[in-house]
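Weekly sync notes, structure subgroup
Attendees: PM, AL, DS (notes)

Item 1: joint prediction request from the bench team. They want all two components modeled as one assembly rather than separately. Inputs as received:
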Amino acid sequence: MLYKKILLAIDLTDESIKVANKAAELSKAMGAELVIIHVIEALNYAYGGDVPIDITDIQNQLKETARERMTVLESQIDVPVKETCVTQGGIESEIHRIADEKDVDVIVVGSHGRHGLALLLGSTANGVLHGAPCDVLAVRVHRSE
Amino acid sequence: MLYKKILLAIDLTDESIKVANKAAELSKAMGAELVIIHVIEALNYAYGGDVPIDITDIQNQLKETARERMTVLESQIDVPVKETCVTQGGIESEIHRIADEKDVDVIVVGSHGRHGLALLLGSTANGVLHGAPCDVLAVRVHRSE
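Output from the run, pasted for the record:
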């Protein structure tokens, strides 16, 4: 079969369910295992340098919220999820690391499919594509603006 | 089903069969129609300006070669191909135009998955991703170097 193991990378925004449903359908059609990852961008990454306050509490809070949202999302899709990971670091590098570690066949990620705003928002699909150890399925999401 | 119509975009190099086989497997798993496109980059695109010679013969030769290679490729994959297109223009814009015109659900394209050389070679997967009217599956190909 085409794919045995699928890594769904989500940002846990409202759009995630659309991307998750596509990954779930793909998983069903292929009989493939589904692993879901959410990367919490380390705050010093997001702000481009050292943060002069103790951010441990904030980071922990972010992790807790992420895990709660992950649970909700998992309950909304109709295929069994093999594993969920909430990890911290650079978004693309963490996705690639987990893809490699778990030897997945394809990464599924949302894409805004546009030049302008996508670049401002940080074009994750594009970043995931470069350097990916496997295939990448970019699922087109239309942002409501 | 996840996808009803798949557009496979290929450059007709030796790597194309790998990408084509993935598209064929996806088509089989989904019961989806498969359309194949090859874009001949207009020579004035490729050389970034007007070409001061009559290039009609060269372009016709390129088209003929492309159609021959398309026929060979079609015979190598084991699913029926609904339609093949050989078109001319900018690679990404032509792929997007045909995807839109034929209302496809996903574009399948090869990707070298690397930063450095991929940029030099013209990162088509990346270009196809931006502005695509649908999902994009980038199939990782390892170039033999």
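Discussion: Helices of chain B lie at 16-30, 43-46, 56-76, 91-101, 116-121, 124-129.
Action: AL to compare against the crosslinking data before next sync.
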